[in-house]
């Protein structure tokens, strides 16, 4: 999580996605929601969302490859009580091509 994140401003640094090129999209899904919220690339590996209302954790993150268009989901990777500047890991990853 980016150090400037808060319940209304979500910013995440995506690191160590393997094998499928740069990301073209990062989406966030709140607890109890069936819809994905698109983020915007801020700079480098930082993706942000100005939600307008507090996000409800746990949060899932969907990554879309810019090369193949493949997606993967890190389900509930951001826990309830998340903290700005904290690191949360997922074991999902693109397969190397």
How would you portray this structure in words?
The chain has 97 residues and is an all-beta fold. The protein is 0% helix and 39% strand. Strand 4 (40-43) and strand 5 form a beta hairpin. The mean pLDDT is 89.
Rg from alpha-carbon coordinates: 13 Å
Give the overall shape, derived from the CA principal axes. globular
Query: What is the H/E order?
Result: EEEEEEE
Major sheet attributes: 4 strands, antiparallel
pLDDT averaged residue by residue? 89
Order of strands, widest sheet: 3-2-6-7
Beta-strand share of residues:
35-45%
Assembly state of the chains shown: single chain
Alpha-beta classification? mainly beta
User: Helical segment tally?
Assistant: 0
Tell me the helix content: under 10%
Give me the count of strands.
7
Note the gap between the termini.
28 Å
Detail the poorly predicted runs. none
Q: Can you lay out the helices and strands and say which pair or pack?
A:
Elements (H helix, E strand, L loop, with lengths): L8 E5 L9 E7 L7 E2 L1 E4 L2 E5 L8 E7 L5 E8 L19
Antiparallel strand pairs: 1-5, 2-3, 2-6, 4-5, 6-7
Pfam families: Expansin_C
Protein name: Atexpb2, expb2, athexp beta 1.4 atexpb2 (Expansin b2)
GO cellular component, one term: extracellular region
Condensed summary:
It is built from no helices and seven strands. The chain has 97 residues and is an all-beta fold.
Task: Name its key features.
97 residues; mainly beta; four-stranded antiparallel β-sheet; three-stranded antiparallel β-sheet; globular; Expansin_CBD_sf; secreted; Expansin_CBD
